[in-house]
Amino acid sequence: MANNTTENNGPLKGLVVADFTQLAQGPWATQMLGDMGADIIKIEPQKGDWMRHYSYGNMYPNGESISFLSFNRNKRSIALNLKDPRGHDIAKAIISKADILIENFRPGVMERLGLGYADMKQLNPGLIYCSSSGYGGSGPYLQRPGQDLLAQSMGGGAALNGKKGDMPMVTAVGQADLLTSLFINQSVLAAIHSRSATGKGQKIETNLLNSVVGFHIQEVTAYLHKGENPERSESGIPNPWLGAPYGIYHTQDSYIAIGMNPVQKLAQAIGAKKYDSEEYASNNIMEGRDEIRSDFDAVFRTRTTKEWLDILLERDIWCSQVNTFDEMVKDPQIKHNNMIIEIDHPKAGKVRTTGFPVWFSDTPQKIYKPAPLLNENAKDILKEFCGYSEDKINQFITEME
After folding, report:
1. CA angle 7-8-10, nearest 5°?
2. In the CATH scheme, what is the homologous superfamily, with its name and number, of domain 16-215+361-400?
3. Are 396 and 388 within 8 A, CB to CB?
4. Average pLDDT over residues 53-68
5. Among 30, 101, 204, 361, which is least packed, fewest CB within 10 Å?
6. Would you give the distance in Å from CA 360 to the centre of its chain?
7. What are the sequence ranges of the domains in the chain?
8. pTM
9. Taking a C-beta distance cutoff of 8 angstroms, is the pair 370, 73 a contact?
């Protein structure tokens, strides 16, 4: 179970983040900052983050979206109408005391609300202001809707997946969203480091499309060198730039993943005598790769995955089991790494989710708050950032309901 306490001693303790994000790319970025100890003030529309009303698999334990719960722990929530003068002033009061602001509205929305960077840097010169969008803050796609599937498709990665002749295939995981979350985090923390030397904040822009293209650095560089699109294999080798024996194979009871190994070495280990010669000493054979894969697949089908792992790992062959989610959460290394945790939520009950993937020796991260209820922390935020009296707080909350 996660250490679900109010104590916060993470490495980012003391940093305040004004979080104007919704959906996935922004909220996962701010959740990670919160996991590392930053104080995340989640400023939501009065009906809440869009993700409160959408959920993977339509799963809503006691009315709470599984998707929202996944991306919004370790935050405080306040619901504001940013077009209302009072809501606008409250947002500015929070921003004035924040170290970082992150937003992922369509380009131009924050400016129209009077909360754009040009205005906010006058209010708070040390502010790190990060805007994240689908395609960037300017350019021919400025008015296009930006979403993970669209960015993956546009970025070229979908054409790498699947077999020759298949339609392009995007990843089931929101690759563009979650990569952008990582770029947001490293960029705002780099800007915090710069501010420590200069005292000045700055604006950062990230976007889904750039993240996808940047993520495919090796594949794009290979294309630019060769000048031809990569050709996917007929047998389903998962990367068109790689040859045999790389890929996933059937076994007697499930599947096994084989990494980049010399074909000859693997052939010796599994008894595929046809390929036990110096001709096959390479670990990336492109010519005839589909035939090699087919021949190896037939051999792998003769034993169980565990039997093959025992044989191959003893010979230092790069290989692994292919886990389903059910198998992954029970995997001994996953358990050892504490990557599946449980959080108590006031409405949803016990929520099992993924842990924080990084370990700190001196400033351990903790899950000290579950995902907040909508407007749950309004009273504390209004008092702390705006100096509201108890009467004024109650009046505001009553009028906003």
Report:
1. 150
2. Crotonobetainyl-coa:carnitine coa-transferase; domain 1 (3.40.50.10540)
3. yes
4. 93
5. 361
6. 20
7. 16-215+361-400
8. 0.88
9. yes
